């Protein structure tokens, strides 16, 4: 089963960390990435640039409105994702739980819709 | 992907046998597999140019053996081991086999290779990948394509699987006693998974995945030839043939799924149905049946009916009862509830479905809701049927299935 693990955090939080905290955080990320690569479960993933660079587009009655940034009140933002293929939802949840952002903010685990279907 | 069909078929037939002989002789799966890959590569270059050798098996074995030894020579650290191996090997194994020496163990070697690839230390996904590569002779790129994952991912998965076999001390020998039965079960399950991966995806445009059903049938056929007296192998082959026979009728022109009851049965593949039905009918007379035989028998009963309404539901219900006895599970109960509804009315099916309510394995599964919707529709409760279909549509992770369920929900209408 394929899952997208969505990473949520607060923009700019990395700058507020001490050197030791930063090292620990990236160490955890490196360890999980190495494990997922070795097991062949990692399909891909990307980190997203700062929300300050984001544009949000809404078309209403045929009129597009383009605004800066995705958020009005939100303190958390969608910061990136991992795409994994693993045996069960439980395994996907375990991976998400070990991602450092899960401890401070949140990870979302979402099954990916497939193009194939079983017989009715 | 164009293919030189006869040569490629021959190579894929011979590759596992050559690999089996090498691993038995030298004991290093990883290195032997690389050597066989190199020999196959050499064959694809030389055979079309020079013509088929008189004894392709001997040719491949000799080339692979030579590559393996070259490889060891090139690594000084391995030299001692090589010498030790050479000293230990019996004299008759030092001699290259006669060119026509289809060594008597070649077929058993292929089966043992399958056992090794389905090593219990591996996850199901790794067993499938390794089997397709080592026994099926597919390239890593082809396997990655079929499973819609990046090639690097599949390469990692395969290399990791090989390491795990090594770490688990995967000995190259035919498992004996109860272990053999357990391992054979794993092999059949892996073949079944390969088939399903191809079959559930055949609605898509990707031909590689239809290749997977063909590959699963080819490998199961080979295992059946090695063990023709095993009823479950025959049963699994029959099940695949009977299921695959429906493929032309399963999807509409737009790729939408067509349920069994609405399929144009004249488009079912008659040859596969004949072969599958004969296989399972014969196997069922050998002794107590196993789950694959019973599932094949159910598929055969469906295949017998020229029209959906001619289906012999009492017989199918009886077979599901037998299956529930042999290998009970929520999916069996689910299918049995449909058969029960067809024989005893929708309420009987719904009652059986209710027994799954507390089953954690089925919690969140969309299929229970799809079947509930179908049975409620049969019972005339349109409102509840629509809600069940909608719940099922929300829970499936398959796009074609979701479309199908949404159409069903719309079709039963609301509040009528």
Précis, in short:
The complex is a heterodimer of chains A (120) and B (416). Chain A is α+β, with helices and mostly antiparallel strands and 120 residues long.
Q: Determine and state the CATH class of chain A.
A: Alpha Beta
Uncertain residue segments of chain A: none
What's the number of helices of chain B? 20
Most extensive interface between two protein chains, with residue counts: A-B, 21 and 35 residues
- Which CATH architecture of chain A is right? 2-Layer Sandwich
Q: What series of H and E elements makes up the topology of chain B?
A: HHHHHHHHHHHHHHHHHHHH
Overall body shape of chain B: elongated
CATH topology of chain A: Alpha-Beta Plaits
**Between the first and last Cα atoms of chain B, what is the distance in angstroms?**
53 Å
* Helix share bin of chain A: 25-40%
List keywords for this structure.
heterodimer; A: 120 residues; alpha+beta; Alpha-Beta Plaits; 4-stranded antiparallel sheet; two-stranded antiparallel sheet; 6 strands; B: 416 residues; mainly alpha; 20 helices; elongated; DNA binding (chain B)
Task: Summarize the topology.
The complex is a heterodimer of chains A (120) and B (416).
Chain A: E1 2-9, H1 13-16, H2 19-39, E2 42-47, E3 55-60, E4 63-68, E5 77-85, H3 89-98, H4 101-104, E6 106-111
Chain B: H1 5-26, H2 29-50, H3 56-74, H4 76-88, H5 106-117, H6 124-134, H7 140-146, H8 151-167, H9 177-199, H10 207-226, H11 231-244, H12 247-250, H13 270-283, H14 291-304, H15 313-326, H16 330-344, H17 346-354, H18 366-379, H19 382-395, H20 399-412
Helix pairs in contact in B: 1-2, 1-3, 1-5, 2-3, 3-4, 6-8, 6-9, 7-8, 9-10, 9-11, 10-11, 11-13, 11-14, 13-14, 14-15, 15-16, 16-17, 16-18, 17-18, 18-19, 19-20
């Amino acid at each position: 089963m394929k899952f997208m693990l969505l990473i949520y955090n607060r923009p700019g939080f990395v700058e507020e960390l001490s050197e030791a905290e930063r090292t620990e955080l990236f160490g955890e990320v490196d360890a999980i990435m190495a494990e997922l690569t070795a097991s062949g479960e990692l399909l891909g993933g990307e980190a997203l640039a700062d929300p300050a660079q984001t544009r949000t587009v809404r078309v209403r009655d045929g009129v597009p409105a383009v605004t800066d940034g995705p958020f009005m009140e939100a303190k958390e933002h969608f910061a990136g994702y991992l795409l994994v293929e693993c045996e069960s939802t439980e395994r996907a949840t375990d991976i998400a739980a070990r991602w450092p952002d899960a401890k401070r903010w949140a990870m979302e685990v979402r099954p990916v819709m497939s193009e194939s279907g079983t017989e009715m | 992907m164009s293919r030189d069909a006869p040569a490629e078929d021959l190579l894929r037939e011979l590759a596992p046998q050559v690999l089996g002989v090498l691993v038995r002789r030298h004991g290093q799966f990883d290195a032997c597999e690389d050597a066989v890959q190199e020999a196959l590569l050499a064959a694809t270059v030389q055979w079309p140019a020079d013509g088929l050798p008189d004894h392709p098996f001997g040719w491949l074995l000799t080339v692979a053996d030579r590559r393996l030894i070259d490889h060891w020579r090139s690594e000084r650290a391995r030299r001692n081991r090589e010498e030790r191996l050479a000293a230990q090997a019996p004299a008759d194994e030092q001699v290259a086999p006669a060119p026509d020496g289809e060594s008597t163990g070649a077929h058993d070697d292929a089966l043992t290779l399958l056992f090794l690839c389905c090593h219990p230390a591996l996850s199901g996904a790794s067993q499938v990948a390794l089997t397709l590569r080592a026994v099926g002779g597919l390239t890593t790129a082809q396997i990655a394509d079929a499973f819609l994952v990046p090639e690097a991912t599949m390469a990692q998965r395969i290399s990791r699987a090989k390491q795990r076999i090594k770490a688990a001390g995967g000995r190259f020998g035919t498992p004996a006693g109860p272990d053999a039965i357990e391992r054979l079960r794993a092999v059949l399950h892996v073949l079944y998974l390969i088939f399903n991966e191809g079959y559930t995806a055949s609605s898509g445009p990707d031909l590689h995945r239809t290749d997977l059903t063909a590959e699963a049938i080819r490998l199961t056929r080979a295992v059946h030839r090695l063990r023709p007296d095993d009823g479950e192998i025959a049963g699994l082959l029959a099940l695949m043939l009977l299921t695959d026979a429906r493929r032309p009728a399963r999807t509409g022109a737009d790729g939408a799924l067509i349920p069994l009851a609405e399929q144009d049965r004249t488009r079912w593949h008659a040859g596969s149905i004949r072969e599958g039905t004969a296989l399972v009918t014969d196997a069922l007379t050998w002794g107590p049946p196993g789950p694959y035989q019973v599932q094949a028998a159910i598929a055969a009963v469906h295949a017998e009916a020229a029209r959906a309404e001619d289906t012999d539901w009492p017989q199918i219900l009886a077979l599901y009862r037998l299956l529930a006895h042999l290998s009970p599970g929520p999916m069996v109960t689910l299918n049995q509830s449909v058969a029960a509804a067809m024989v005893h009315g929708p309420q009987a099916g719904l009652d059986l479905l209710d027994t799954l309510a507390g089953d954690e394995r089925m919690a969140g599964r969309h299929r229970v809701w799809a079947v509930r919707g179908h049975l409620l529709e049969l019972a005339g409760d349109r409102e509840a049927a629509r809600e069940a279909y909608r719940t099922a549509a929300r829970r499936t992770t398959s796009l074609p299935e979701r479309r199908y369920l949404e159409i069903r929900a719309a079709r039963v209408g609301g509040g009528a």
